[in-house]
């Protein structure tokens, strides 16, 4: 009964307060499909960083429900509303790799520019995608940047070794093998 009252209020009032109350109600009751619909309705009364945060939240919900394409769309939309939304950028990068859409990941990273250093785990995804795309000098540069930043894991070291061998870069190879 409470749900119906809040739904009617949200429909009639159309205010942010009413929409947020509906979102809270569906969230507390675990009604995911209705929560997604309520968050999409809430979008209409938000803008900027708040709308980006709402879209990011929708992305996480879609991903949790196995709707990866919808999640990717939500995270892209979040970035349109707040280009500095690193959480959405990271989630989008991971989802693109999971969906075998590394070309889109590279296009996204290329749009950011080569000077932008992302979170280490996203940089590893970026470097691996560059490597698989045959962009070895760029991949090697990313793996070296990870190493220089102290964000070294086995995967990035192996990537540095592979790209250094392929490029005949003895100094990077020695760095990867012997640190």
Characterise this structure.
- The protein is mainly α and 179 residues long.
- 79% of the residues lie in helices and 0% in strands.
- It is built from eleven helices and no strands.
- Helix 4 (48-64) runs parallel beside helix 6, helix 6 runs antiparallel to helix 7 and helix 6 (86-98) packs parallel to helix 8.
- The longest helix has 17 residues, at 48-64.
- The mean pLDDT is 89.
Short description:
By secondary structure, this protein is mostly helical. The chain has 11 helices and no strands.
The global form is: elongated
Percentage of β-strand residues: under 5%
Number of helices: 11
Class by SSE composition? mainly alpha
- Identify low-pLDDT runs: none
Mean pLDDT: 89
Topology:
Elements: H1 2-13, H2 16-29, H3 32-43, H4 48-64, H5 68-81, H6 86-98, H7 102-112, H8 120-132, H9 136-148, H10 154-167, H11 170-178
Notable features of this structure?
mainly alpha
């Amino acid at each position: 009964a409470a749900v119906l009252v809040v739904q009617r209020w949200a429909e009639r009032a159309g205010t942010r307060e009413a929409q947020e109350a509906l979102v809270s109600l569906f969230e507390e009751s675990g009604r995911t499909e209705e929560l997604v619909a309520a968050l999409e309705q809430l979008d209409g009364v938000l803008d900027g960083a708040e709308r980006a945060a709402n879209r990011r939240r929708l992305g996480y919900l879609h991903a949790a429900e196995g709707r990866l394409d919808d999640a990717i769309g939500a995270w892209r939309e979040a970035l349109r509303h707040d280009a500095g939304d690193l959480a959405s950028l990271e989630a989008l990068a991971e989802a693109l790799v999971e969906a075998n859409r590394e070309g889109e990941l590279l296009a996204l990273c290329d749009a950011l520019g080569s000077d932008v250093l992302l979170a280490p785990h996203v940089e590893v995804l970026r470097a691996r995608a560059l490597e698989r795309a045959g962009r070895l000098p760029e991949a090697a540069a990313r793996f070296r940047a990870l190493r220089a930043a102290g964000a070294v894991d086995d995967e990035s070291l192996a990537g540095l070794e592979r790209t250094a061998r392929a490029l005949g870069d003895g100094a990077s190879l020695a760095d990867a093998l012997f640190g």
